[in-house]
Amino acid sequence: MIFAILFLCGFAAKWQHVSAQSSLDKRVDSVLALMTLEEKVGQMNQYTSSWDVTGPMPKGSRDSLKYIQIRTGQVGSMLNVLSTKATREAQRLAVEDSRLGIPLIFGYDVVHGFRTIFPIPLGESASWDMNAIEKSSRVAASEASAAGLHWTFAPMVDISHDARWGRMMESAGEDPYLGSLIAAARVRGFQGNDLSAPNTIAACAKHFAAYGFIEGGREYNTVSVGDASLYDAVFPPFKAASDAGVATFMNSFNEINGIPATASTFLQRKILKGEWNFQGFVVSDWASVAELITHGVAEDEKEAARQAVIAGCDMDMEGYCYVPNLVTLVKEGAVDISLVDDAVRRILRVKFMLGLFDDPYRYCDPVREQNELFSKANQETSRDVARRSVVLLKNEGNLLPLKKDAGTIAVIGPLAADKDIPIGSWRANSVENSAVSLLEGIQAAVGKKVKVRYAQGVKLSTGTRSFLTEVNVNETDTTGFGEAVRIAKGADVVVMALGEDCWQSGEARSRTEIDIPGLQTELLAAVRAVNPNVVLVLMNGRPLDLTEVEPQVQGLVEGWFLGSQAGNALADVLFGDYNPSGKLPVSFPRSLGQVPLYYNHKNTGRPTATGNVFWSHYSDEKNDALFPFGFGLSYTSFSYSGMKLSSETMKMNEPLKVSFTLTNTGKVTGTETAQLYIRDLVGSRTRPVAELKKFQQITLKPGESRVVTLELTSDDLAFYTREGLWAAEEGDFEAMVGPDSRNIAAKQNFKLVR
Ligand code: NOJ
């Protein structure tokens, strides 16, 4: 109470005094020194509000109980508190009513936008454009902070090879190098250069670790992964986020080799806080501390709390394990007080960095909230990022771009006029049905010059669609087929919009089929039978099996869930106002049976056909992807020529330059993402057949050429060696350049020497 009074009559000034005079650590320690054990444990506790529940229903669902606990210093953070009004109200309880007045930190899943929605992360990753990605996170941070939030549970940086897993939509795809660049870009975007600026928020790299490697792609399932994959594939984007200064990490629901990540000392203390010297704090995933009991490694909540704190999990999200047990655990000597102090220091440090001790209401600005959310400028940024994320997969006979005086366009399909599905499943504070539909985008692009006809054709699902329920895919009702076929017959070109409901990907949305769901493929066949000029626009959150539909269409456009401006962005690409530049961040399989599928696989002992069956293959399908990692077409074409290496040998720590000439051989200006892969020909451990190591985006006018130079250093060649070191090994390498991971235009060998 004394402190509450002090706060009201000048305590804020005292914090300011501390902050002005001292280093961050001193300021943190000065607060820590005032705290009781109970208050320390309180800082390690995070509750959800009931505004937006993003997990199983919370235990203390009555907010009033939680509010009492805020007043008694038992809560350090809340998630899912929305709006300046609500955050101010909760913050007031912490800073004015609790003994020490320590401000709360408010977190939320701002995954691809807050009110203005951007493409789902997998889609945005297809832009390969770090400026665009950084900008999108910057806008998201700006909107979220305008609504009183301090912290996003993003970026999700899990590498995944399994299209069955619904959360692939949230990832940057299958490649650790691309994933690392994207992780860092998103951290920069959210956090900016100054975490205390009112328009930046703390980021959170999640889910540490290996969540993307769950067995069978089934959500929350078991993970068994060897050290080599852990270091080579799983860790790099997390390390990149840590190096980029990410303020927080989230651990994960899954176990790894028998130890739940939340209880893993190896992950959280040895690797993250030890080897990587991460200074921020680790939050559990939703109730993942309590789930140590269901995993079967702890008999009760007390033991779960003990294991999690010892392992380095600093904050308990909706787990209800720390507050009831941690004080006793410390008093009994089962948890050393230094571990609690370390956790609290980390949490306070982030609060100080956000400027919350200087002004706990800094982020509560209703005027900014009013002006910034869904602003015109943010819509423009979203449209630009969205069109960069579109990937052109097929363009037979150059049907695309469509002409703006093309006669009649039939726009058909369950997703064509849909204004909700493009928002995707991590939709934060967006408004339902607020996306520009494809139909609206096309209509706006052509105005009155083209007749645009629309038919839904078929419903994708039946019943209620929601965040909490399964999607009931329509498998029977074909009543709309007739109308679709009728308008297709009379059209010059058909644009079909097919794909998944956005609630078929995301958390808890694993699928055992990865085809286009329901009756949509049948609809396509019916339309195709009367009009062969079909452009198929896909909306989906994972790689789909397109083997059946690809031959039926002349144009194939991967449109993910592109966010608020989806329809306009797609129209920009369809009509050539934007020449597509996206490249797949993930392999699209030929069939589900190939999954897990990824381009940077190992060679095996029997990689090639030998004249009989005894080689590594399927009897009924090719090994490679239908559309490989890195693939994407443009309305122009590019050639690669004159590849040169600056030397045939590369010295440790000295760069090797790989150059080649890129020429725009087509008729319009376009942007190519030129890619450099390497292969380590002999290693102490087996090495992938190709690994992306550098790329560059180059815009060229028709006929224009440019020499592109990409630089490799021995750091780029490092991996987890047989001795358990992260190191590059001397020996022979292959450098390969080209437009994607399969179509290598040129390659040359070099040798790494000491
Ligand atoms: C569970 C998810 O796994 C995590 O990514 C998310 O941040 C939390 N729920 C909070 O909503």
Task: Throw out a few tags for this protein.
754 residues, six-stranded mixed beta sheet, 18% strand, binds 1-deoxynojirimycin, five-stranded parallel beta sheet, 20 helices, disordered N terminus, alpha/beta
| Strand percent estimate | 15-25%
* Major sheet summary line: 6 strands, mixed
Helix content: 25-40%
Q: Low-confidence spans: pLDDT under 50, at least 5 residues? A: 1-14
Shape: globular
Explain the overall architecture.
By secondary structure, the chain is of the alpha/beta class. It is built from 20 helices and 28 strands. Strand 5 (204-208), helix 9 (227-243) and strand 6 form a beta-alpha-beta unit. Helix 7 packs parallel to helix 8 and helix 17 (438-446) packs across helix 20 (566-574). Residues 1-14 have low confidence and may be disordered.
Topology of this structure?
Blueprint: H1 2-21, H2 24-32, H3 37-43, E1 45-48, H4 63-71, E2 77-79, H5 84-97, E3 105-108, H6 121-125, H7 130-146, E4 151-152, H8 176-191, E5 204-208, H9 227-243, E6 248-251, E7 255-256, E8 259-260, H10 265-275, E9 281-283, H11 291-295, H12 301-311, E10 316-317, H13 322-331, H14 337-353, H15 366-372, H16 376-389, E11 391-395, E12 408-412, H17 438-446, E13 451-455, E14 461-462, E15 472-473, H18 481-489, E16 493-499, H19 520-530, E17 534-539, E18 555-558, H20 566-574, E19 638-645, E20 649-651, E21 656-664, E22 670-680, E23 691-700, E24 705-712, E25 719-720, E26 726-727, E27 731-738, E28 746-753
Parallel strand pairs: 1-2, 1-10, 2-3, 3-4, 5-6, 6-9, 12-13, 12-16, 16-17, 17-18, 20-28
Antiparallel strand pairs: 7-8, 11-18, 14-15, 19-21, 21-24, 22-23, 22-27, 25-26, 27-28
Helix pairs in contact: 2-14, 3-13, 7-8, 7-15, 7-16, 8-9, 12-13, 16-20, 17-20, 18-19
